[in-house]
Amino acid sequence: MKNERGSINFQMSGCQKWKPVVVILAVYFVMAVLNFLFKKILDKGKSHLVIITYRLTTAAIFLMPVAYFHERRRGVNVKLTTPILCYLFLSALIGATLTQYLFLIGIQCTSAAFASAFINMTPVFTFLLAILLGFSQARECELEKHKKDS
């Protein structure tokens, strides 16, 4: 096909449609390889807390510049008060450290394949925990509405 300029325009709509699928498959492949490597490291006797420390430190090193420049570009100037720091600490303790610690205990007791399959249950447990703690309120009428839409 030719466009206004006379050059050939390749229709990439088919490739664009599959881009999210390819990205998700690549992410799952990387996660499976990491789970396999974690299993090998744990089998050699490395401490759970050392692995978590390395993992969280690496994530912080890579994400801090991204967050800094993103927030700087937006012009947001948030002051870190004591309550905000306490919330951040508790969120990191429960959300990252405890979750990874339990994951590593589970991967040590089972196989890497089981851990790769079971990690997909995290959103379900998060939703159930949010309902139990009262952060999310799922009403029956909303559930019925979603059933009709499906």
Automatic annotation (TrEMBL):
<keyword id="KW-1133">Transmembrane helix</keyword>
<dbReference type="InterPro" id="IPR037185">
    <property type="entry name" value="EmrE-like"/>
</dbReference>
<dbReference type="GO" id="GO:0022857">
    <property type="term" value="F:transmembrane transporter activity"/>
</dbReference>
<comment type="similarity">
    <text>Belongs to the drug/metabolite transporter (DMT) superfamily. Plant drug/metabolite exporter (P-DME) (TC 2.A.7.4) family.</text>
</comment>
<feature type="transmembrane region" description="Helical">
    <location>
        <begin position="50"/>
        <end position="70"/>
    </location>
</feature>
<dbReference type="InterPro" id="IPR030184">
    <property type="entry name" value="WAT1-related"/>
</dbReference>
<dbReference type="InterPro" id="IPR000620">
    <property type="entry name" value="EamA_dom"/>
</dbReference>
<feature type="transmembrane region" description="Helical">
    <location>
        <begin position="21"/>
        <end position="38"/>
    </location>
</feature>
<dbReference type="GO" id="GO:0016020">
    <property type="term" value="C:membrane"/>
</dbReference>
<dbReference type="Pfam" id="PF00892">
    <property type="entry name" value="EamA"/>
</dbReference>
<feature type="transmembrane region" description="Helical">
    <location>
        <begin position="82"/>
        <end position="107"/>
    </location>
</feature>
<keyword id="KW-0472">Membrane</keyword>
<keyword id="KW-0812">Transmembrane</keyword>
<protein>
    <recommendedName>
        <fullName>WAT1-related protein</fullName>
    </recommendedName>
</protein>
<feature type="transmembrane region" description="Helical">
    <location>
        <begin position="113"/>
        <end position="135"/>
    </location>
</feature>
<feature type="domain" description="EamA">
    <location>
        <begin position="21"/>
        <end position="133"/>
    </location>
</feature>
